[in-house]
Amino acid sequence: MRREIPMFITAVVGVVFVIQYFIPHWPFNQMNAWFSDWFSIISACAIWLGALNLMKISANKVYRKKKEWGYSAVIIACFAITVFIGFKGGESFREAGTGFDWIYRFAYIPLSATMFALLAFFVASASYRAFRARNFEATLLLLAAFFVMFGRVPVGDAVVGWFQNIGLPVPDAIMPSNIATWIMNVINAAGQRAIMIGIALGIVSTSLRIILGIERAHLGGD
Amino acid sequence: MEMSELIGIWLGAFLTLGIISFLYGDNPWYKLCEAIFVGSSAGYWFITLFWDNIYSKFYVGVTQDGNYMLLVGGVLGFLMLMRLISKIGWISRWPLAFVVGAIAGFYLINYFSSNVMYQVNATIMPLFGSGYGDPIFSASFGNVINKIIIAGGTFTGLVYFFFSKEHKGAFGATAKVGIWVIMLTFGASFGYTVMSRMSLLIGRMDFIFGDWLGLIK
């Protein structure tokens, strides 16, 4: 029963979501509305599960005084402070001037933006090591990356503009910004579409396997 | 400037520099900022989902709107939390099965519609016209070339991803062109990602030198 009931739930919910697309009438539209509401409630609980599990692991680390347990204590403290202020703020917790908004503006945004910005350095150093025009394909990758980056900064057009200013017959079409836009809108569009269609077909077939009960990995081992 | 704003800017600068300090190597300042990030992020989403979903949708829906069907979602959500108790953790498979089924059913149709049918529709455009319903020969020469490249690039890219047939002969040559298109796409995506990260970095530097140090007016 530990496997059969979940498989039955998956099949029913999946089939209802498919049918309501083709028959958006009672009872399927009603079931779709219920399922969508349930889905958002369960999703919230799934995020809660993740947060509570993090607290459980961190508390265990602090309790057992494991290596670097102090950082786990900071995690628990920051979580507790954010949650306390968020609950205290009530329904309007997000409004400007609230404590929660202060945490969001001065802690969450600086941390998340800097964390992603840090990747700029690692991507740059990784590309310096990895980018070698070893063969034709690698050269294409290198050229596309170069033109997109060069075309997105003002110095790109300024260099070509300088050649135009000294009288060289350089057409506007080969301005780095125009080349970057063309690569993004034409070549990149073609490649992205091929990848997107491939992924979508994979998702469709996997979804079908899940609904039919052929794919059961999400149910676990026992 | 208010005191809370001032303290906030100093805190933001402390955290920004703490994360950037990782460039020097893993250090206690970075680890502290990382722990603050993990704890506050978890708390942020915990609270946001509580007020947006559990309170506004579930609690208000049941107590004020009388929508008792939401109780089923509430029970399933509660069962999801049982994962924390190892002895009865298996029961969390029920809500998990619901989520997997909902996503599978939703994606089955929507991905096929938006990422297959719509993309094919956008790829196969009238060659000499600007768009569907426009007069013939209304497209510019550059437009015609671009449409050929998009249609050809998409087709060859798809051929490359077709591994049920050996890549030999004409099929292999088409797949080879597909690789070129894919490599150009990866290069463009890489360049675009680097520039977006640079943009974030510039934003943080603007905060440090402008808001905090006041060197940029």
Low-confidence stretches of chain B: none
List how many beta strands of chain B DSSP finds. 0
Largest interface: A-B, 126 and 121 residues
Helicity of chain B, in percent?
over 70%
Summed up, the helix count of chain B is 6
What does this structure look like?
The complex is a heterodimer of chains A (222) and B (217). Chain A is mainly alpha-helical and 222 residues long. Chain A has 3 domains: 1-88, no CATH class; 90-130; 131-222, no CATH class. Helix content of chain A is 77%, strand content 0%. Chain A is built from 7 helices and no strands. Chain A is extended and about 75 Å long. The model of chain A has no long low-confidence stretch (mean pLDDT 92). Chain B is mainly alpha-helical. Chain B has 2 domains: 1-68; 124-217, no CATH class. Chain B is built from 6 helices and no strands. The interface between A and B is large, with 126 and 121 residues.
Features:
heterodimer, A: 222 residues, mainly alpha, 7 helices, B: 217 residues, 2 domains, 6 helices
Q: How is this structure best summarized?
A:
By secondary structure, chain A is mainly α. Chain A is built from seven helices and no strands. With 217 residues, chain B is mainly α.
Element layout with pairings:
The complex is a heterodimer of chains A (222) and B (217).
Chain A (H helix, E strand, L loop, with lengths): L3 H19 L5 H36 L5 H20 L10 H32 L5 H16 L2 H12 L10 H36 L11
Helix pairs in contact in A: 1-2, 2-3, 5-7
Chain B lengths: L2 H18 L7 H36 L6 H12 L11 H31 L17 H20 L8 H44 L5
Helix pairs in contact in B: 1-2, 1-6, 2-3, 3-4, 5-6
